[in-house]
Design a protein that fits this description.
It contains nine helices and 17 strands. By secondary structure, it is an alpha+beta fold. Helix 4 links the parallel strand 4 and strand 5. The protein is globular and about 55 Å long.
Length: 330
């Protein structure tokens, strides 16, 4: 984040916090998030796993009833749903990283080991403005994925073991070119039949084609686009002769990114949640639309190195290349 985006703010008078007790293996309960939030003056809705709720309706009702801050203690998927309402309503948004990975919180510099520390923003916070991505009308704080990436999210094991699921599923998916045929359009660029597509709210690091690492900014006003193909040898030669990166398209753009397919609906991973969306899926960035409330004192954004498990991802990519090119993996 750019430091000049931060500004001091007065404490919220009527904060409203939605707590998902199942996220992160019960992290919210272990850190007594609901109790501590109430002690700081927040109204708390504790989600009941046996009674699914329309969180958009819940958040909108809270704003209509006078809430001047919306917060979520949960994973990135739940964060995104409520963040969309906060942005639309113009009220600040509080991120309490009570999920498994919490990539959005990581890029905000929050303490993911102690989610209760984020509650300090209720009484001693600063505010920053960050971008918000949209896939159709659905907001996303991290990314929306298609093809092989979406297949990973659809797998039940992905939530608890992301790296392991990548290693298990990705080679087979890419080797047989499974799933609908996709076409990606961004401005003058067209990518035909990619096997995996990731559109992110601000670009990931260039050495992170799995979208498991960090973003250096959340306020660049740019979508990141990663589109990968498992290619035949002839296609590889043609691309190399044309000076193109082998099998991978990587760009940042402020323009709309359209992902189309040869089917009316496609499986999509939206901030790690498995959903289906009608095609074509139009992705856009809304610059500075989300007001995020964070603690005045929080961990600094650490050096953005390679994500955990990056060696495993590289080995998968190597195995996929050997399989697609007719050689068994070593």
């Amino acid at each position: 984040m750019t430091e000049n985006a931060f500004r001091p703010v007065a404490a919220a008078r009527r904060p409203y916090l939605i707590v998902n007790p199942r996220s992160g293996g019960g992290k919210a309960s272990r850190f007594r998030i609901a109790e501590r939030a109430r002690e700081l003056g927040a109204q708390v809705l504790l989600l009941d796993p046996s009674r699914p709720r329309d969180l958009v309706a819940v958040a909108r009702r809270a704003v209509d009833d006078g809430a001047d801050l919306l917060g979520v203690a949960g994973g990135d998927g739940t964060q995104a749903v409520v963040a969309g309402v906060a942005a639309q309503s113009g009220v600040p948004f509080l991120v309490v990283p009570a999920g498994t990975r919490n990539h959005f919180a990581m890029d905000l510099g929050l303490d993911r080991e102690d989610p209760s520390a984020a509650l300090e923003a209720l009484t001693d916070g600063v505010e920053l403005r960050v971008d918000l991505g949209y896939a159709g009308e659905r907001a996303f704080v991290n990314n929306v994925s298609f093809g092989a990436y979406a297949a990973l999210v659809q797998d039940p094991a992905y939530r608890d073991d992301k790296i392991g699921t990548v290693v298990r599923i990705l080679p087979e998916f890419l080797a047989r070119h499974a799933g609908p045929e996709l076409v990606v359009r961004a401005g003058l660029l067209t990518v035909d039949r990619p096997d995996a597509v990731l559109v992110s709210n601000n670009p990931y690091q260039v050495d992170d084609p799995a979208g498991l690492g960090r973003r250096t900014q959340l306020d660049s006003g740019l979508l990141g686009v990663l589109a990968a193909r498992a290619e035949t040898p002839a296609e590889t030669v043609a691309r190399l002769r044309g000076g193109q990166t082998h099998g991978l398209t990587n760009l940042a753009t402020s323009e709309e990114v359209v992902v189309d397919a040869d089917v009316p609906v496609v499986p999509v991973g939206l901030d790690g949640e498995a959903v289906t969306l009608p095609t074509p899926v139009r992705c856009r960035i809304s610059p500075g639309t989300l007001r995020v409330r964070v603690p005045r004192h929080r961990p600094s954004v650490a050096h953005a190195g390679r994500p955990p498990g990056w060696g495993a991802i590289r080995r998968v990519a190597s195995a996929v290349g050997r399989t697609v090119h007719g050689r068994p993996p070593g």
